[in-house]
Amino acid sequence: MNLYDLFVKPYENYSAVQILLEATGTVFGILSVYFSIKKNIWVYPTGIISTLIYVYILFNFGLLGDCMINVYYTAMSIYGWILWSKNSKDHIHVDVSWATRRERMFAGFLFVLSIALVTLIYYYKPYIDNHFSMDGANLGLYHLDWANWLDVITTSIFLVGMWLMARQRIENWIFWIIGDFICIPMMIFKELGITSVQYLVFTIMAILGYLNWKKSLKEKNIQ
């Protein structure tokens, strides 16, 4: 596999509109992470635009299972937006803190529940991607390779990360760092070179976000 196969070949059959949409979704995704680092509520409007673009792209590609997961991301972003709006003194920035023991336990439960739900979506994915028709669709997990199973895990990691971010908990960055890092080789395996670079950028930004939120809490406690 060379650089051409990674960064050019997958897009040879894409239309200009499809490439523009994916690029726009990527830009808004990066903007969303930037705003989250700054504890700025614009993390959610930009994130919602990004996920809705991917909902449209995946729907048009007939990947309804992946589309449904992005719909969930959008719903979680709306939930986070509402929470941050309530907890923001200036309606833009929020204070952050570490998760409580109870929240960490719930995060663990949410992770296990997410794995079960995402696996269930993959089980019915042949039926969903066949436009909810059983004609020629064989249910099961037989179609999953190691990258798909990693996708189940990373999706669950991201869902927990989104919940912790909505709660303004510093631990959310740990989940983003782990999930983004895992996605780098997974996207290379899928021959999505541009997306793998995107996740490399996300990993670096997530590390910066973790350090920034920790510093912010420390400075607040000193005051």
UniProtKB/TrEMBL annotation:
Q: Which Pfam families match?
A: NMN_transporter
Span-the-membrane segments of this chain are: 15-35, 42-62, 68-84, 105-124, 146-166, 173-190, 196-213
Per the record, the major location class is membrane
The GO cellular component terms are: plasma membrane
- Which superkingdom heads the taxonomic lineage of this protein's source? Bacteria
Membership in a protein family: Belongs to the nicotinamide ribonucleoside (NR) uptake permease (TC 4.B.1) family.
Q: This protein is called what?
A: Nicotinamide riboside transporter PnuC
Species per Swiss-Prot/TrEMBL record? Chryseobacterium carnipullorum
| Designated gene of the protein | pnuC
